[in-house]
Amino acid sequence: MIRFWAFVKKEFLHILRDRRTLMILIGLPVALVVLFGYIISNEIRNVKIAFIDYSNDYLTAKLRNEILSSGYFVEDADFLVPAMATDQIFPQVEYGDIDAVFKKGNTSVIVIFNKDFAKNIEREGTAAMQIVADASDPNTAAILVGYIQGIVNDFQKSLFFSGRESMVIDVEPRMMFNSELKGAYMYVPGTIAFILMLICAIMTSVSITREKEFGSMEVLLVTPLKSSQIILGKLVPYVFLSIFCSVLIFVLGYWLFDVPFKGPIGVVILLTLLFVAIALLLGLWISNFTKTMEVAMTLSLVALMLPTLLLSGFIFPIESMPMFLQVLASIIPPRYFLEAIKTVMLKGGELVDVAREVAVLVFMLSVLVVLNIRGIKPRLE
Amino acid sequence: MNNSDPAIKVVNLVKKFGDFVANKNLTFEVQKGEIFGFLGANGAGKTTAMQILCGISLPTSGKVTIAGLDLNKHREEIKLKIGYMSQRFSLYDDLTVKENFRFFGGIYRMSKSQIKTATEMLLDRLDMMDKMNDIVGSLPMGWKQKLAFTIANMHEPEIVFLDEPTGGVDPLTRRRFWELIYEAAEKGVTVFVTTHYMDEAEYCNRVCIMNDGAIVALDAPAKLKEQYGAANMDEVFLKIVNRQKK
Amino acid sequence: MIRVDDISKSYKTVKALKDISFSVDNGELFGIIGPDGGGKTTLMRILVSLILPDSGHALVHGLDTVKDYRKIREIIGYMPGKFSLYTDLTVMENLDFYAKVFGVSIKQNYQLIADVFDQLMPFKNRRAGHLSGGMKQKLALCCALIHKPEILFLDEPTTGVDAVSRKEFWDMIFKLRSDGMTILASTPYMDEAGRCDRVAFLQNGEIMGINSPDGMVDGFMRDVYAVKVPIHDVNRTIKALKKWDKTHLAYLFGDSIHWTPISNDFHKDVLLQYILSCGCECISIDLVPANIEDCYIHLSFERDSAYE
Q: Where are the domains positioned within chain C?
């Protein structure tokens, strides 16, 4: 065991000595989270909104005003209701036009008030409205709907009518184009997947091939250290580093940008550790058949980082990919990690809700373990 | 260039890297057709000086004249007049003999027909015509070296720089290589060579020994041996370096 | 001791070792001498259990390099040709690491490494990458010795090291030998052969000869004449001698030309006459004792001729 810990200590020294890489490994997740967080919170200022008001009474007018005065929304000039001779205001947009309005590209949200809004509230204590958001940009859409719901909630509390204990405004949110809201807040799990791949897969494969390239692997193998000890010793520091970075990303997302964290934390930790193990073994596997750092780096970038960015559902929704890419996406681990994390973190799912993803990840892990055990060699060839 | 002019003339050459002085005020001349040996321990400043003479690196101060041209003004012209070969890199192992000739000929702005005639003539002289299309990496070490030297001389340079051309080569091949150097020198080519083998220092017309960035000895091997009362150049070198240490 | 029986090894199309056999006795300093690409590194790696031979087998202290590799690794020290310590770790961290890996402390075997260790101590907090070439080799040797190995394998420990550091390094190796360690060292430098108890000439994957340095020279049957000519006549003289029908070999050797006749039944005046008749000057001709390098040159020449 002394041997093993001496080896782990040496690995830590390598990591600590290489200040530049260490700064990148810690700086990059911070930069990515802040960047994504900032872009998203910036996008929801001055969002163009349009109203379809079938009721057009004093309550809807008041609510419209509330929404507009929140500071986040601006009424889309293209659809402003023209001033008429009468007090009557006619909505320019018709319900059937929604599709066309969104396609025009400027408007992000349309709020629709059903007929007799005020009358229904007064008589029955309930009225209905719809929020339709353009969810082709799911991150923004989810946040916008959330804001409007908040405004409506406040508004509803301020309403008091005699004889009614509470008023209910029935809000039906709808996402157009991406009705299931894939990818909202995906940047947190996405960044985690990306960073874990970077630390675990690339750093591991590079650090092992470095020993091969510099010839120190020769010396290590000729010592009483077992090959399995060498490999485990290589992995330990990166496990620590990746856990540190994951925590950093979660914390930043949660505290700075209010990314929801609904599900049980235990499941998130389980998923993250599972993914760390898979990424480490992927890096290890790559180092099995590469001899130079250059090749290991290129291979990890092309075979691991690019799919993590492009095919995992982090940036592009998998459903809209061509069949061929969907098949490809179905064999990459980050896809299942993202899916599961999203379910737990953003939707509040439990372990049972992500059982399928966990099963797939465990399967992938076992395949990698087998592949890597075969790859452990006590010699140079 | 006048025939009596030196091939290489270095006056007060200084090269600094930050605070570190790699070459301290070097002054020497190499005559036309001379075989000039450049010796020194690791880190003595040999490589730095050689890089400056080849025009790869700029001197901090001092005047260097190569083949009658001022190094500071005519670096590109100088590059056409010199050849270079080193043990570490000389030919592309994954190209054929012919492709190597074509590539290096092209670098030195030879025309296609010039390259063709030169290739055939030189390979014929090396008795390697049948190896024209062989991959260089598959040739035995000795042949590779001959080939590398021949290619470094293909554009008929006035001066060839050889950076440890015989490192790790067997004794017989090493000697055959030196016979090639002698032949080139007889044709009037100036040879500037560095080596770790002290017996090779004996083969030079004159040798220059560097230590700590400065020239500590410069003369014909016979004279140096006499001066230091040594039986061979190995002893001369050890005596000089040890004296410097104290 | 080391025993090598009929070891062969090929890489793709290249035969790196062709049926090599030899043995090294306990306490012997054995040199493997040959050019780059001769097979030295392949042989070393097979013996330290890093690669497997295609055929044949080798025993290190009676342990099979293939089957008992784990036990072999406990008792040997190995210093590969390339500097392979951690350049980003300090001198002390490197030493510490190897000591712990072998389960020893630096103090335990201090006696063995004392000389080198004391030379290294002024730089103990310097990163290994910032050491000079000679110092790097000393550190590598120190790390290879830290567990007091029974057999030490040194693969080209002096390549790329200057003449002064080379001499110092061989002094240290020689001292280890005097303390009874078995040492197998490879080198491309002929002048280092004299420091070994026995040497093997390895070229093109074949052993051309094994003997003690003196034995090599004693076994050399040809007379060697050292011909001194003015430097401007050297090339012409060599060319003329090569063409002569009495010549076995003529080659540069230090400040003279070494010439060996086809038959030893020969008078040096004939040689002088021939040189003068070719229009070359001649300073002196002496019958000299053969040097180990003469032996090597003849062996490799005879091999080359056998192939052609």
A: 2-212, 221-289
**pLDDT tens readout for residues A56-68:** 788 888 888 888 8
**B169-192 average pLDDT score:** 91
Separation CA B62–CA C164 (nearest Å): 30
Q: Per residue in A105-155, pLDDT tens?
A: 677 788 888 888 888 877 777 888 888 887 666 667 777 887 888 888 888
E strands, chain B, in order: 8-17, 20-30, 35-40, 61-66, 69-70, 82-86, 159-163, 190-194, 206-211, 214-219
- Nearest Cα to Cα of residue A72 among A38, A49, A40: A49
Least confident of A156-170, C105-119, C276-290: A156-170
**Residue B1 scores a pLDDT above 60:** no
SS3 A379: coil
Q: Which of residues 5-24 of B touch C (CB under 8 A)?
A: none
Put simply, the answer to whether A10 touches C97 (Cβ < 8 Å) is yes
- Structural domains in chain A, CATH included, are 2-40+184-375 (no CATH), 44-176 (3.40.1710.10)
Class of domain C221-289: alpha beta
Q: Which CATH architecture has domain B8-245?
A: 3-Layer(aba) Sandwich (3.40)
Identify residue C259 by its one-letter amino acid code: W
ipTM of the complex: 0.85
CA dihedral C162, C165, C169, C171 (to 10 degrees): 120
- Of C82, C85, C89, whose CA–CA distance to A11 is shortest? C89
Q: Would the pLDDT of C279 be above 70?
A: yes
Residue C308 confidence (pLDDT): 55
**Which residues of chain A have a CB within 8 Å of the CB of C76?**
222
Closest CA to A188 of A37, A306, A316, A319: A37
Closest chain A CA to residue C41: A218
C132/B42 touch (CB, cutoff 8 Å), yes or no: yes
Residues constituting chain A: 381
Tell me what the pLDDT averaged over chain C comes to.
Answer: 92
Rounded CA separation C138/C95 (Å): 11
CA distance A116 to A127: 8
Best of A210, A213, A222 to substitute, by most chain C Cβ atoms within 10 angstroms, is A222
- Was domain C2-212 assigned CATH 3.40.50.300? yes
Taking the C-alpha atoms of residue C169 and residue A94, their distance in angstroms, rounded to an integer, is 92
Tokens of A285: 């596997």
Burial class (CB in 10 A: 0-12, 13-18, 19+), A369: middle
Query: How many C-beta atoms lie closer than 10 Å to residue A57's C-beta?
Result: 16
